[in-house]
Every structure is written in C-alpha cells, then in structure tokens.
Amino acid sequence: MTTLELHGVHKSYGNVAALKGIQLSVPRGSRTAIVGPSGSGKTSLLRIIAGFEAPDAGRVVLQGDVLADGPAIVPAHQRGIGYVPQDGALFPHLSVADNVGFGLDKSAPDRKARINELMDMVSLDRAMLQRRPHELSGGQQQRVALARALAQRPKLMLLDEPFSALDTGLRASTRKAVARLLQDAGITTILVTHDQAEALSFADQVAVMRGGLLAQVGMPLDLYLRPNDPVTASFLGDAVVLDATLSAGWADCALGRLPTQDHARVGSGQILLRPEQLSVSPLDTAAVSAGEAPSCVGTVVETDFCGSVCELIVQLDTSANGARVHVHSAGLEAPGVGARVQVSARGMAHVFPAS
C-alpha cells in the first residue's frame, strides 16, 4: 500500500519551472530520499507536500485523501504531516519540555506522560526536559525537533536536510538513530538532502531530481549500480564511464574485455564501473621485458589520501583518447604519483541504456 502519491505536480516561479510533472509513489512505512543538486526542485517539492505552497497543477494524495488538486489545497496544519527543518527551529525561550509539547493541548491530563514518552522514543534523558535548546548539542536539538514533530502522531514525516549542520561523526550517528526510530515506529518518511551518501544510507527508495524532473527512482543499490545515464551515475558517486564496443554480454574498452549484464546490445555504447571495482598493482617489469605485458597498464597521475582509502587517477596507456580512470586503493598501500601500474576490474560493467 502507498501512503503518498504525487500525480503530475507542476510548479513555476515566474518564468522558471521548478517542477515539471512529478510522478512519485511512496510506500507505506518506507523511507524515501529525494536527492539532487541545488536548484533541482527538491525543496519546492517538499514544501508542496507539506502544504506550505500550492502546486500550479497536479494532485497530492495522502492515504486516499486529496491534499492538493492544483491550487486548491488543504492547509498545512490539517494534513497530519510532521516536519523537521534543517536547523530544527526550536523555540529558544522555551524549555525542552515545552518545545516537545508545543502542539499538545496544555490542559490534556496525559500531556506530561506523552512528553516523557516522546523523550524516550528519541533516546533523550528526561533530565533534559527543563533545559533550553542552547544547552543541548546539535544532535540533541535535532532529536528534540523530531520529538516535537512526532507529538501529533503524523501519517507522514518530512525531513528537510536535518543533519546538514552536524559534524561528520555526529551526523552519521544521528542519521542512523533517526532512521531506526522511524522504522520502529512504522512512520512513512521523506528525506530531502543534497548528500548522495546520506540518501543511499538512509532510504529504501531514492528519487534523483534534476532540472525539475525525477531522473530516476528506485532502490539505493539499483540506482548506484544501474543508473539510467552518466549524469545520474556521477551524481550518486565517483564513476568510471568508458566508451565501449558491445557484443553478446561483453564490452571491449580501454580496460580490456569486461562482462556486462546486457546480452542484447551490439555496437558502440557506454559502460559504468565504480572505482571500488578497480584495483591497481605494481607493474611487473620482468613480464614486460619478457614480452608478457598485462592487458591494461597506466601511470598514476593524481593521488588523494583520505585515510583508509586513497583515491587515485590513472592515465591508461591503452586508451587512444587519453582516458583516465578513478581507482580506490587501500590508503597504506597506494602507489605514488608517477608509479607505473597494471589495472584490473572485477564484477560486471553496467551498460547505459541507448539514448
């Protein structure tokens, strides 16, 4: 079953078309990430779902209820949708308890119990209830904002880049904790982010936006390994895109002859490999002297040490057009600039659909 359905949603600001007929289905209890570069339309889409703006055309349906049909919309406060903005937007003059319970009836006899329950849900110590937001860490503030959004038992939770202001370690741990909390509560969630790794890690469905359109929607692993085009491939991570000659499930390219998942295509095309599919090893000079050079040789022209991983750029000897490939190597074993290496690939190459 689906919780949210978007049908042909359009939105323009003056002469600029922000959304161009968005079609999207969000399964009940799922976590969907909408990811795209700045200006792709993802924030406009989130605001239309929340009810902060009206579409020019199209329908928004939540659990069978029509929330928007063109400019005719249900107000945001009547939608049953929780919303956590980028900065949390806590009220600085209120205590944590009053922030969490802001939307609850102050005269309700179970208000205090509900606030305590929400603190437990987001794994915050009840001793924090009398603190003010400035007395909390960034991760704790985001959990308070989430608890406030959960107070009304929403049908749908919207997260607008809620982890972007946190440092790297805290960002990862908070993201995992929030994902687990929402999954355990069975709450359908939409996360908007510009962080590709965050989208792939958080969601079980990823929607990639580009130029006001959904370029591709699917499971994270499918999108990462089998993107529709090179632009989407590069947006979701480092990509090795090569021209190839295709025939019966094989691709002949600058890296040699590689297996592919496409047994039907014949002729020229483009293939994708991820850097983690490539490996380098020192060139066997003895084999070269004996006339037994490996099939793919190159020179390391750039290195970027990132700790456990070193990112290499290798200029291939076998490439007539000077192709360079991106390789992830173990950080402590990575060759330096100028090193002569042999390059090998493992796994299947992805063949991009014919344009």
UniProtKB/TrEMBL annotation:
Keyword Ribosomal protein included in the entry's annotation: no
Keyword tags: ATP-binding, Cell membrane, Ion transport, Iron, Iron transport, Membrane, Nucleotide-binding, Transport
Domain ABC transporter: 4-236
InterPro entries the record matches: AAA+_ATPase, ABC_SmlMolc_Importer, ABC_transporter-like_ATP-bd, ABC_transporter-like_CS, ABC_transpr_FbpC, FbpC_RD, P-loop_NTPase
Top-level taxon in the UniProt lineage: Bacteria
Gene3D superfamilies membership: 2.40.50.450, P-loop containing nucleotide triphosphate hydrolases
Signal peptide boundaries: none
A single MF term (Gene Ontology): ATP binding
Keyword Transferase on entry: no
A UniProt-annotated Pfam family: ABC_tran
Protein name per UniProt: ABC transporter ATP-binding protein
Source organism: Rhodoferax mekongensis
Source lineage: Bacteria, Pseudomonadati, Pseudomonadota, Betaproteobacteria, Burkholderiales
